[in-house]
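This entry is retained here.
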Amino acid sequence: MAKSKPSGRKTVARNAIAAPSTARALRSASVASARPDAKQPASPAAKSGASLHPGSLLSVTQLTLQDVNQILALAADLEIQPVQPRAQRLLKRRVSLLFYESSTRTRTSFELAAKSLGADTVLVSALSSSIEKGESLKDTGLTLRALGAECIILRHPSSGAPYLLAQATQLPILNAGDGIHEHPSQALLDLRTILTRRLGAKHARSVTAQTLAGMTVTIVGDIFHSRVARSNALLLPMLGARVVFCGPEPLLPEAAAAIGPGITIERNLDRALAQSDVVMMLRIQKERLAGLKLDLEEYTTRYQLDAARLATHAPKALVLHPGPIIRGMEITSEVADGAQSAIEEQVHHGVAIRMALLARALETPATSANKTKITAKPVKKNTK
């Protein structure tokens, strides 16, 4: 079994991932996708030109505007469909939740979404399975497939892991968060929350390249380690939004602006708030801060969103947070529970979005004509 060498702030494949034949490719994908200036992940599937199941969602970069519209429309339809007919949609289909990291919102949301559609679910966690004994991701995936799993929802600490699993199993894989790479379903539910609160529910099922034109979304905090920030920064500009990253340099390198079009960096939170229609606060991920020099008291003073700051600089802005919230750190309880907050609404919209993704995954034929070919795109280097 291949052993990974420490790589500082770059995420690499861990021992639990795979056999030597795939570990090197995944390690390359992890490093490439972790770079702030990487616009496309150089996944193992990309390197080989492998075809993946067309129902998979591994990255926001797979989605076209038409795909986003289909997901939003399906989410809206499923949400209002009567319980009994909806429960027949994926009746007795088998969905496996494979979680190598702790999760409350994402795991529960996906499980409720699957059961709402009538599917049978099984949870496999790293602490209560053969994973704890050293079984590779590939072998775990193949085992689940042999047991009858028809779709796997994966959360993994290594960037690029969903690509490996999708390639190995040829099942539809839904990325529930991989390392510091991406969290596609979170970005989609954030989009639905923004559309519903800002434009109204009837506008949350159909979008164009100009739907969010003129809107500024500011994402504040630990941008470098945030898969949520990356996925939102890739998705929202597709609809015309301007994205502003705000945070201290250790958590927000200048190269982060090169993630995608329409992204700028503002170090001063007050100035960022003054131009914001939506503010998304991110928690400080203490588990990922090894080796960084960060004074948490100073960070709180400069970047905490409290009621006074919000009222002064962004009295009409919508406040989001992907969770979990660390009250008193990046956001105060007064703001998190206030009238401008849509944090609970984000959780609510997550079930509808994930129902749509599961229906899409399991109802899309896995024919060669329909399979999605992930092809490598050149990574543009930061020239600043």
